[in-house]
UniProtKB/TrEMBL annotation:
The keyword Transmembrane applies. The lineage of its organism: Bacteria, Bacillati, Actinomycetota, Actinomycetes, Kitasatosporales. It comes from Streptomyces polyasparticus. Keywords: Cell membrane, Membrane, Transmembrane, Transmembrane helix, Transport. The keyword Transport applies. Belongs to the 4-toluene sulfonate uptake permease (TSUP) (TC 2.A.102) family. It is a multi-pass membrane protein. Pfam families: TauE. It is found in: Cell membrane. InterPro entries: TM_pro_TauE-like (IPR002781), TSUP (IPR052017). The chain crosses the membrane at residues 47-64, 76-93, 99-116, 137-164, 170-190, 230-248. Its main location: membrane. This is Probable membrane transporter protein.
Amino acid sequence: MDISIGEFIVLALAAALVGFSKTAVSGANTVSLAVFAAVLPARESTGVLLPILIAGDILAVLTYRRHAHWPTLWRLFPAVGAGVLAGTLFLMWADDTGVRTSIGAILLLMAGVTVWRRRVAARQEETAASGRARWKAPSYGVLGGFTTMVANAGGPVMSLYLISSGFQKLGFLGTSAWFFLIVNTSKVPFSIGLGLISWRSLLLDAALVLFVVPGAWLGRKCVDRIDQLLFERLVIGATVLGGIQLLVR
C-alpha cells in the first residue's frame, strides 16, 4: 500500500496499542481502528487490522489462557456468529464512504457504551444477577459479532457484558482473550471473500505485527499498576475524537 514513512509510524504505534490493549485494557484498540481507518481507506483498513488483532489475541491467550470461563463463551458464540453474518452482508454492499461513516458511528456508540459500562460496574452486584437473564448473551452476542465484523470494534460490547456478569480482572482478560482469538480467526475467510485481506495487505501486516509484541509486553507489565480510571478516560476521549474525524472526513 502507498503510505508515507510518517503514516507507517502512526500505524506502528496503533499496532503497539493493539498489543497493549490485549494484555492490559480491553477495548483500548478502538483508538487503533480509528487510526487505521484515518490513514488507510476505511473499508480496507478493517482487513489490514484483523491479522494484527489476531496476533495480539494469540499473545493474550498465551498470557491468560488458564483464566477463561468457557460456559460464558459457549453461551455467546451462536449469537456472535449471527452478528458476524449480518456484518458480512453489510460489507458486501457498503462502499468506502459507508464503511467510514459506519466505523465513526460505531466508535461514538462504543464510547457511550464504555461510559455506561463504568456506571454498571459501580452496581456490579445488582447487574451480576441480571447477567443470568436469557436475553443478555444473545443480544450482546449479535451486537458484538456485527461490530467486530464491520469495524473490529467488538471490544467495548464484550467488556460491558463480562463486567456486568461479575468478572474480575484475570477472569475478564482470560475469557476475553479466548473469545476474540476464536471470533477474529473465524472472520478471516469472510474478509478474504470480501477482498479485505490480500497479499498487499498481508505485506503491510508483516511489517506492523512486529510492534504488537512490545505493546503486549508493556501491557503485561502495567496491568497490575495501571490507573484504570484515567486510562479509560483517555481512551474514551481519543475514541470520540476519532469517530468525529471519520464522520466529518
